[in-house]
Request: fold
Amino acid sequence: MDIIFMIVCGGLWIILGLILVVGVIYISYATYVYWKKEKLNEYERLYRYVSDEFHIFQFDNKNLNKSKALYKFFSDKTNYKKALNLKQYNDFRTENYNQYPITGFEKEDLKKKRQFSYQYEKLVYDIFSPWGIYVTDDKWLLSRKLNAIEIIDRIGEKLGLMLLDSIKLFDEFIKNGLIQKTSNGFYIMGYTLFYWDCVSKKDWSFSKWMTFKKNHIYRDAELKDFIEEYGSYEIINENNRWYIRFGESRNYLVNINIIQQEIIYLIYSWDGDPSKRIWDFQFESDKSDETKNRIIKMIEDNIQNLGVSDYSLVYWNKNYKNAYEYQQVHRKQL
Reply:
């Protein structure tokens, strides 16, 4: 009887175990099916924001039906992030700007405000620039709200104004539509700059400013300007090349290439031990922490003489005003 009882109990445990396993499998499968359905619904809503890219993808993948094409297309994180950013911006624009269509303003009044904004537009663009989202060189998105203190502090910092004067200018920005208040008490870039081309298509937009900043200011500047702009940096070796990377916490990255011979010499000169110096052709593939620390030490010791030209770190003679002037003279000598 004891044997029979043990067999029966063992069988029951096996049956219960099987039921449990089947239940887990069923729940997991049902959860997966639900997740797939929800993802497909999300992709159906998102693809309209990147419809041109998706239609090209469909043309190149005619063997896939639409559902499979959506899954495969958005498995690329770049496509997914771009669509999400565009959707977020569209929602932000609808909530904050579409309630102020241009026909709702006196056009001449808007133009006057836009003309007033010329002297301050780049300041406002610069204040919001850390949160610009890169789509293409012609399109940067911005869906960021700031509190009043952040903006007032930045106005004072950029223009060298006392607090009271910064507050007065902040009020002028609101009055002229460079900044506007949202329903929850935060502030966004104003309708005057949203309708940036109401006077001329040649005027500066946020996208034009961000592209200019990325492609021009950052191409020839002092390294200190980058540190001031981003606040921090890191030294990385990527694809057998050393970089100073800025903007890790931003929506776009700026990599400064470390290749100039003068720079490489400085990296190995600070401790006065020539035996530790590697050949220049080995430098880029040397991923050691020791070399990384040497680069950091070199930057700390030579920050006053370091600049950026064409996204490369340069060292210039103190006889020159800045990296740009040094690079222009140096190019003529080559």
